[in-house]
Amino acid sequence: MCHTFHPVLLYIYCMCGVVAMVTWLPRRVRRKLRGGSDWVSTLYYTLFYNYFTSLYVALEVMLEPLFWFVEKFAKYLGPVFVTLVVVMTTSVVTIFYVCLLPHVYTTSLPWTIFHLIFGHWLLVNIVFHYLMGVFSQPGTPPPQNVPEIVSVCKKCISPKPPRTHHCTICGKCILKMDHHCPWLNNCVGHNNHRYFFLFCVYMWMGTIYVSWVGHDLFRQHFYGDEPTAFPPLFYPLNAIHDAIYRSNDPAKPMSIIINPNPPPKENYIEHYYHIAVLYEFILCSGVTLALGLLMLWHARLISKGETSIEVHINNTQRKKYKKKNLVYRNPYDYGLKKNWMVFLGFHSCRTFICKVLLPSTHPPEGDGLIWSRASYKFKQDKGLQLL
Ligand SMILES: [Zn+2]
Ligand SMILES: [Zn+2]
Q1: Structural domains counted in the chain
Q2: How many A from CA of 295 to the centre of ligand 2?
Q3: Contact 44, 4 (CB under 8 A)
Q4: Catalytic residue among 173, 181, 187, 284
Protein backbone atom coordinates (compact mmCIF):
# COMPACT_ATOMS: atom_id res chain seq x y z
CA MET A 1 0.00 0.00 0.00
CA CYS A 2 1.51 3.32 -1.06
CA HIS A 3 0.92 6.33 1.26
CA THR A 4 1.49 9.22 -1.15
CA PHE A 5 -0.56 12.42 -1.08
CA HIS A 6 -3.04 12.33 -3.84
CA PRO A 7 -5.04 15.51 -4.69
CA VAL A 8 -8.40 13.76 -4.22
CA LEU A 9 -7.37 12.34 -0.85
CA LEU A 10 -5.97 15.71 0.22
CA TYR A 11 -9.27 17.36 -0.62
CA ILE A 12 -11.22 14.75 1.40
CA TYR A 13 -8.89 15.24 4.40
CA CYS A 14 -9.24 19.04 4.19
CA MET A 15 -13.03 18.78 4.16
CA CYS A 16 -13.05 16.39 7.14
CA GLY A 17 -10.59 18.65 8.99
CA VAL A 18 -12.72 21.76 8.48
CA VAL A 19 -15.83 19.99 9.74
CA ALA A 20 -14.01 18.49 12.75
CA MET A 21 -12.56 21.91 13.70
CA VAL A 22 -15.95 23.57 13.90
CA THR A 23 -16.08 24.04 17.64
CA TRP A 24 -19.86 24.08 18.12
CA LEU A 25 -20.17 20.49 16.97
CA PRO A 26 -20.52 18.02 19.87
CA ARG A 27 -17.59 15.71 20.49
CA ARG A 28 -19.66 12.65 19.61
CA VAL A 29 -20.46 14.04 16.15
CA ARG A 30 -16.81 14.95 15.54
CA ARG A 31 -15.78 11.43 16.46
CA LYS A 32 -18.31 10.05 13.96
CA LEU A 33 -17.01 12.34 11.24
CA ARG A 34 -13.47 11.17 11.91
CA GLY A 35 -14.69 7.57 11.63
CA GLY A 36 -16.29 8.44 8.29
CA SER A 37 -13.05 9.99 7.00
CA ASP A 38 -11.16 6.81 8.00
CA TRP A 39 -13.72 4.76 6.10
CA VAL A 40 -13.30 6.93 2.98
CA SER A 41 -9.49 6.72 3.12
CA THR A 42 -9.61 2.93 3.62
CA LEU A 43 -11.99 2.64 0.68
CA TYR A 44 -9.73 4.82 -1.44
CA TYR A 45 -6.53 2.87 -0.68
CA THR A 46 -8.36 -0.46 -1.02
CA LEU A 47 -9.59 0.42 -4.48
CA PHE A 48 -6.60 2.24 -5.97
CA TYR A 49 -3.44 1.12 -4.11
CA ASN A 50 -4.21 -2.53 -3.52
CA TYR A 51 -2.38 -5.22 -5.46
CA PHE A 52 -5.23 -7.68 -4.82
CA THR A 53 -8.04 -5.36 -5.96
CA SER A 54 -10.53 -6.97 -8.30
CA LEU A 55 -13.99 -6.12 -9.53
CA TYR A 56 -15.45 -8.45 -6.91
CA VAL A 57 -13.60 -6.66 -4.06
CA ALA A 58 -14.61 -3.24 -5.41
CA LEU A 59 -18.27 -4.29 -5.63
CA GLU A 60 -18.19 -5.77 -2.13
CA VAL A 61 -16.79 -2.52 -0.69
CA MET A 62 -19.24 -0.39 -2.65
CA LEU A 63 -22.20 -2.52 -1.56
CA GLU A 64 -21.17 -2.37 2.11
CA PRO A 65 -23.64 0.51 2.89
CA LEU A 66 -26.43 -1.53 1.29
CA PHE A 67 -25.57 -4.57 3.45
CA TRP A 68 -25.50 -2.29 6.48
CA PHE A 69 -28.95 -0.95 5.60
CA VAL A 70 -30.39 -4.46 5.16
CA GLU A 71 -28.84 -5.66 8.43
CA LYS A 72 -30.05 -2.60 10.31
CA PHE A 73 -33.61 -2.23 9.03
CA ALA A 74 -34.75 -5.62 7.66
CA LYS A 75 -35.42 -6.92 11.18
CA TYR A 76 -37.66 -3.88 11.85
CA LEU A 77 -39.52 -4.40 8.56
CA GLY A 78 -40.31 -8.04 9.46
CA PRO A 79 -43.06 -7.24 12.05
CA VAL A 80 -44.61 -4.75 9.57
CA PHE A 81 -44.78 -7.43 6.86
CA VAL A 82 -46.21 -10.02 9.27
CA THR A 83 -48.89 -7.52 10.40
CA LEU A 84 -49.71 -6.87 6.74
CA VAL A 85 -50.18 -10.61 6.06
CA VAL A 86 -52.39 -11.03 9.15
CA VAL A 87 -54.52 -7.93 8.42
CA MET A 88 -55.00 -8.74 4.73
CA THR A 89 -55.78 -12.42 5.32
CA THR A 90 -58.25 -11.53 8.10
CA SER A 91 -59.97 -8.95 5.88
CA VAL A 92 -60.27 -11.42 2.97
CA VAL A 93 -61.69 -14.15 5.25
CA THR A 94 -64.14 -11.71 6.89
CA ILE A 95 -65.40 -10.43 3.51
CA PHE A 96 -65.73 -14.03 2.35
CA TYR A 97 -68.01 -14.86 5.30
CA VAL A 98 -70.01 -11.62 5.13
CA CYS A 99 -70.35 -11.04 1.37
CA LEU A 100 -69.42 -14.13 -0.66
CA LEU A 101 -70.78 -17.03 1.39
CA PRO A 102 -74.38 -15.64 1.57
CA HIS A 103 -74.17 -15.13 -2.21
CA VAL A 104 -73.11 -18.81 -2.65
CA TYR A 105 -75.90 -19.92 -0.31
CA THR A 106 -78.52 -18.48 -2.69
CA THR A 107 -77.36 -20.87 -5.46
CA SER A 108 -77.78 -24.32 -3.83
CA LEU A 109 -77.33 -26.11 -0.50
CA PRO A 110 -74.90 -28.87 -1.69
CA TRP A 111 -72.66 -26.17 -3.18
CA THR A 112 -72.71 -24.30 0.12
CA ILE A 113 -71.67 -27.46 2.02
CA PHE A 114 -68.84 -28.06 -0.46
CA HIS A 115 -67.65 -24.46 -0.03
CA LEU A 116 -67.80 -24.70 3.76
CA ILE A 117 -65.68 -27.89 3.80
CA PHE A 118 -63.20 -26.91 1.09
CA GLY A 119 -62.84 -23.30 2.27
CA HIS A 120 -62.20 -24.31 5.88
CA TRP A 121 -59.72 -27.00 4.86
CA LEU A 122 -57.74 -24.32 3.00
CA LEU A 123 -58.07 -21.84 5.87
CA VAL A 124 -56.84 -24.33 8.49
CA ASN A 125 -53.82 -25.23 6.33
CA ILE A 126 -52.97 -21.58 5.60
CA VAL A 127 -53.11 -20.57 9.27
CA PHE A 128 -51.26 -23.69 10.47
CA HIS A 129 -48.38 -23.46 7.96
CA TYR A 130 -48.02 -19.71 8.43
CA LEU A 131 -47.83 -19.95 12.22
CA MET A 132 -45.36 -22.85 12.00
CA GLY A 133 -43.26 -20.93 9.48
CA VAL A 134 -43.16 -17.87 11.74
CA PHE A 135 -42.61 -19.55 15.10
CA SER A 136 -40.52 -22.66 14.35
CA GLN A 137 -36.74 -22.37 14.45
CA PRO A 138 -35.03 -22.94 11.07
CA GLY A 139 -32.16 -24.83 12.78
CA THR A 140 -28.65 -23.76 13.72
CA PRO A 141 -25.47 -25.88 13.90
CA PRO A 142 -24.12 -26.73 17.38
CA PRO A 143 -20.99 -24.82 18.45
CA GLN A 144 -19.05 -28.09 18.84
CA ASN A 145 -19.09 -31.70 17.63
CA VAL A 146 -20.17 -30.92 14.08
CA PRO A 147 -19.80 -34.26 12.24
CA GLU A 148 -18.86 -32.75 8.87
CA ILE A 149 -17.24 -29.32 8.57
CA VAL A 150 -16.96 -27.63 5.18
CA SER A 151 -15.81 -24.18 6.35
CA VAL A 152 -15.77 -21.79 9.29
CA CYS A 153 -18.26 -18.92 9.53
CA LYS A 154 -16.39 -15.61 9.56
CA LYS A 155 -19.14 -13.92 11.58
CA CYS A 156 -19.92 -16.63 14.18
CA ILE A 157 -16.33 -18.04 14.22
CA SER A 158 -17.84 -21.51 14.37
CA PRO A 159 -17.78 -24.61 12.12
CA LYS A 160 -20.22 -24.75 9.22
CA PRO A 161 -21.78 -28.07 8.11
CA PRO A 162 -22.67 -28.59 4.43
CA ARG A 163 -25.51 -26.41 3.03
CA THR A 164 -25.28 -24.06 6.05
CA HIS A 165 -25.11 -20.30 5.49
CA HIS A 166 -24.90 -17.26 7.71
CA CYS A 167 -27.96 -14.97 7.86
CA THR A 168 -26.90 -11.36 8.45
CA ILE A 169 -30.41 -10.38 9.58
CA CYS A 170 -30.78 -13.16 12.19
CA GLY A 171 -27.06 -12.88 13.02
CA LYS A 172 -26.51 -16.66 13.06
CA CYS A 173 -25.76 -19.64 10.84
CA ILE A 174 -28.82 -21.48 9.47
CA LEU A 175 -28.89 -25.18 8.50
CA LYS A 176 -29.77 -25.67 4.81
CA MET A 177 -30.57 -21.97 4.58
CA ASP A 178 -32.91 -21.01 1.76
CA HIS A 179 -33.52 -17.29 2.40
CA HIS A 180 -34.60 -14.82 5.07
CA CYS A 181 -38.32 -14.29 4.53
CA PRO A 182 -39.67 -10.85 5.58
CA TRP A 183 -43.28 -12.13 5.27
CA LEU A 184 -42.51 -14.71 8.00
CA ASN A 185 -40.00 -12.47 9.83
CA ASN A 186 -37.93 -15.63 10.07
CA CYS A 187 -35.23 -17.49 8.22
CA VAL A 188 -36.33 -20.34 5.98
CA GLY A 189 -34.02 -23.27 6.70
CA HIS A 190 -33.89 -27.02 7.34
CA ASN A 191 -36.69 -27.20 9.94
CA ASN A 192 -39.27 -24.82 8.43
CA HIS A 193 -38.67 -25.00 4.67
CA ARG A 194 -41.66 -27.33 4.26
CA TYR A 195 -43.93 -24.99 6.27
CA PHE A 196 -42.88 -22.03 4.12
CA PHE A 197 -43.49 -23.85 0.83
CA LEU A 198 -46.82 -25.40 1.87
CA PHE A 199 -47.97 -22.00 3.16
CA CYS A 200 -47.24 -20.58 -0.33
CA VAL A 201 -49.14 -23.48 -1.95
CA TYR A 202 -52.22 -23.23 0.30
CA MET A 203 -52.27 -19.44 0.20
CA TRP A 204 -52.07 -19.57 -3.60
CA MET A 205 -54.91 -22.11 -3.73
CA GLY A 206 -56.88 -19.93 -1.30
CA THR A 207 -56.51 -16.79 -3.42
CA ILE A 208 -57.53 -18.72 -6.57
CA TYR A 209 -60.53 -20.13 -4.73
CA VAL A 210 -61.68 -16.74 -3.39
CA SER A 211 -61.18 -15.12 -6.83
CA TRP A 212 -63.23 -17.89 -8.40
CA VAL A 213 -66.06 -17.66 -5.83
CA GLY A 214 -66.10 -13.83 -5.93
CA HIS A 215 -65.75 -13.55 -9.69
CA ASP A 216 -69.49 -13.50 -10.42
CA LEU A 217 -70.23 -10.90 -7.75
CA PHE A 218 -67.26 -8.82 -8.88
CA ARG A 219 -68.57 -8.71 -12.44
CA GLN A 220 -71.97 -7.57 -11.22
CA HIS A 221 -70.42 -4.75 -9.21
CA PHE A 222 -67.77 -3.80 -11.75
CA TYR A 223 -70.13 -3.58 -14.74
CA GLY A 224 -73.21 -2.60 -12.72
CA ASP A 225 -74.90 0.79 -12.66
CA GLU A 226 -73.18 2.05 -9.55
CA PRO A 227 -70.09 4.16 -10.35
CA THR A 228 -67.03 2.13 -9.52
CA ALA A 229 -65.09 3.55 -6.60
CA PHE A 230 -62.16 1.33 -5.74
CA PRO A 231 -60.84 1.21 -2.19
CA PRO A 232 -57.97 3.66 -1.49
CA LEU A 233 -55.35 0.93 -2.01
CA PHE A 234 -56.42 0.59 -5.65
CA TYR A 235 -57.16 4.24 -6.50
CA PRO A 236 -55.18 4.18 -9.79
CA LEU A 237 -57.72 1.63 -11.05
CA ASN A 238 -60.45 4.30 -10.84
CA ALA A 239 -58.65 6.30 -13.49
CA ILE A 240 -58.31 3.22 -15.73
CA HIS A 241 -61.98 2.40 -15.24
CA ASP A 242 -62.93 6.00 -16.08
CA ALA A 243 -60.82 5.95 -19.22
CA ILE A 244 -62.51 2.76 -20.46
CA TYR A 245 -66.05 3.85 -19.60
CA ARG A 246 -65.83 7.43 -20.80
CA SER A 247 -64.29 6.37 -24.10
CA ASN A 248 -67.24 4.01 -24.70
CA ASP A 249 -70.02 6.28 -23.57
CA PRO A 250 -69.28 10.00 -23.04
CA ALA A 251 -72.78 10.54 -21.66
CA LYS A 252 -72.14 8.15 -18.81
CA PRO A 253 -71.42 9.94 -15.51
CA MET A 254 -67.77 9.88 -14.59
CA SER A 255 -66.90 7.47 -11.78
CA ILE A 256 -64.73 9.47 -9.51
CA ILE A 257 -61.45 9.06 -7.68
CA ILE A 258 -62.76 10.97 -4.68
CA ASN A 259 -66.54 10.77 -4.83
CA PRO A 260 -67.97 14.35 -4.77
CA ASN A 261 -71.46 12.94 -4.16
CA PRO A 262 -71.11 10.55 -1.24
CA PRO A 263 -73.96 8.05 -0.94
CA PRO A 264 -76.77 8.88 1.49
CA LYS A 265 -76.35 7.42 4.96
CA GLU A 266 -78.94 4.66 4.47
CA ASN A 267 -76.90 3.35 1.48
CA TYR A 268 -73.60 3.18 3.35
CA ILE A 269 -73.85 -0.59 3.91
CA GLU A 270 -74.41 -1.17 0.19
CA HIS A 271 -71.57 1.19 -0.63
CA TYR A 272 -69.11 -0.66 1.65
CA TYR A 273 -70.41 -4.00 0.39
CA HIS A 274 -69.65 -2.79 -3.13
CA ILE A 275 -66.10 -1.71 -2.13
CA ALA A 276 -65.52 -4.98 -0.23
CA VAL A 277 -66.44 -7.12 -3.27
CA LEU A 278 -64.05 -5.17 -5.51
CA TYR A 279 -61.27 -5.23 -2.89
CA GLU A 280 -61.63 -9.00 -2.36
CA PHE A 281 -61.37 -9.90 -6.03
CA ILE A 282 -58.59 -7.47 -6.99
CA LEU A 283 -56.40 -8.33 -3.99
CA CYS A 284 -56.83 -12.10 -4.39
CA SER A 285 -56.29 -12.17 -8.16
CA GLY A 286 -53.19 -9.96 -7.78
CA VAL A 287 -51.75 -12.19 -5.05
CA THR A 288 -52.56 -15.29 -7.14
CA LEU A 289 -50.27 -14.03 -9.88
CA ALA A 290 -47.37 -12.89 -7.64
CA LEU A 291 -47.51 -15.88 -5.28
CA GLY A 292 -47.92 -18.30 -8.19
CA LEU A 293 -44.63 -17.15 -9.71
CA LEU A 294 -42.84 -17.37 -6.34
CA MET A 295 -44.25 -20.85 -5.73
CA LEU A 296 -43.26 -22.10 -9.18
CA TRP A 297 -39.72 -20.82 -8.65
CA HIS A 298 -39.42 -22.67 -5.33
CA ALA A 299 -41.04 -25.82 -6.76
CA ARG A 300 -38.41 -25.81 -9.53
CA LEU A 301 -35.59 -25.46 -6.97
CA ILE A 302 -36.98 -28.28 -4.80
CA SER A 303 -37.30 -30.52 -7.89
CA LYS A 304 -33.59 -29.97 -8.56
CA GLY A 305 -32.55 -30.43 -4.91
CA GLU A 306 -31.35 -26.83 -4.54
CA THR A 307 -32.02 -23.93 -2.20
CA SER A 308 -32.29 -20.26 -3.30
CA ILE A 309 -28.64 -19.77 -2.25
CA GLU A 310 -27.32 -23.00 -3.77
CA VAL A 311 -28.77 -22.20 -7.19
CA HIS A 312 -26.25 -19.33 -7.49
CA ILE A 313 -23.36 -21.43 -6.13
CA ASN A 314 -24.20 -24.29 -8.50
CA ASN A 315 -24.49 -21.97 -11.50
CA THR A 316 -21.03 -20.54 -10.75
CA GLN A 317 -19.59 -24.03 -10.37
CA ARG A 318 -21.25 -25.15 -13.60
CA LYS A 319 -19.60 -22.29 -15.52
CA LYS A 320 -16.19 -23.03 -13.95
CA TYR A 321 -16.42 -26.70 -14.87
CA LYS A 322 -17.62 -25.91 -18.37
CA LYS A 323 -14.50 -23.80 -19.03
CA LYS A 324 -12.43 -26.90 -18.21
CA ASN A 325 -14.65 -29.07 -20.44
CA LEU A 326 -16.09 -30.83 -17.41
CA VAL A 327 -19.69 -31.37 -16.28
CA TYR A 328 -20.82 -30.23 -12.83
CA ARG A 329 -23.64 -32.03 -11.02
CA ASN A 330 -25.41 -30.78 -7.90
CA PRO A 331 -24.34 -33.27 -5.16
CA TYR A 332 -27.73 -32.95 -3.39
CA ASP A 333 -29.88 -33.70 -6.43
CA TYR A 334 -31.20 -37.23 -5.76
CA GLY A 335 -33.68 -37.23 -8.67
CA LEU A 336 -37.12 -35.61 -8.93
CA LYS A 337 -39.15 -38.10 -6.86
CA LYS A 338 -36.60 -38.54 -4.06
CA ASN A 339 -35.97 -34.77 -3.86
CA TRP A 340 -39.66 -34.19 -3.14
CA MET A 341 -39.89 -37.10 -0.71
CA VAL A 342 -36.86 -35.82 1.24
CA PHE A 343 -38.26 -32.27 1.20
CA LEU A 344 -41.75 -33.25 2.36
CA GLY A 345 -40.36 -35.76 4.85
CA PHE A 346 -42.32 -38.89 3.87
CA HIS A 347 -41.17 -42.32 2.79
CA SER A 348 -44.24 -43.65 0.99
CA CYS A 349 -47.15 -42.13 -0.89
CA ARG A 350 -49.54 -43.58 1.72
CA THR A 351 -48.49 -40.91 4.21
CA PHE A 352 -49.18 -38.12 1.69
CA ILE A 353 -52.66 -37.41 3.10
CA CYS A 354 -51.49 -37.19 6.73
CA LYS A 355 -48.27 -35.29 6.08
CA VAL A 356 -49.15 -32.93 3.25
CA LEU A 357 -52.92 -32.60 2.86
CA LEU A 358 -53.47 -32.24 6.61
CA PRO A 359 -51.52 -30.08 9.07
CA SER A 360 -48.57 -32.09 10.33
CA THR A 361 -45.66 -31.23 12.61
CA HIS A 362 -43.45 -34.17 11.55
CA PRO A 363 -39.72 -33.25 11.47
CA PRO A 364 -37.78 -33.05 8.20
CA GLU A 365 -35.62 -35.97 7.09
CA GLY A 366 -32.15 -35.93 8.69
CA ASP A 367 -30.65 -33.56 11.22
CA GLY A 368 -29.46 -30.96 8.68
CA LEU A 369 -25.81 -31.58 9.71
CA ILE A 370 -25.04 -34.59 7.50
CA TRP A 371 -26.10 -34.68 3.85
CA SER A 372 -25.51 -37.72 1.67
CA ARG A 373 -24.13 -36.99 -1.81
CA ALA A 374 -25.84 -38.25 -4.93
CA SER A 375 -23.77 -40.86 -6.81
CA TYR A 376 -23.45 -41.00 -10.58
CA LYS A 377 -22.11 -43.51 -13.05
CA PHE A 378 -20.91 -42.78 -16.55
CA LYS A 379 -22.41 -44.58 -19.55
CA GLN A 380 -20.94 -44.20 -22.99
CA ASP A 381 -24.30 -43.71 -24.71
CA LYS A 382 -26.19 -41.75 -22.00
CA GLY A 383 -23.48 -39.81 -20.19
CA LEU A 384 -23.74 -39.31 -16.41
CA GLN A 385 -26.57 -41.33 -14.81
CA LEU A 386 -27.90 -41.01 -11.26
CA LEU A 387 -27.40 -44.24 -9.32
ZN1 LIG B 1 -22.53 -17.66 11.06
ZN1 LIG C 1 -32.45 -14.84 8.85
Answers
A1: 3
A2: 20
A3: no
A4: 181
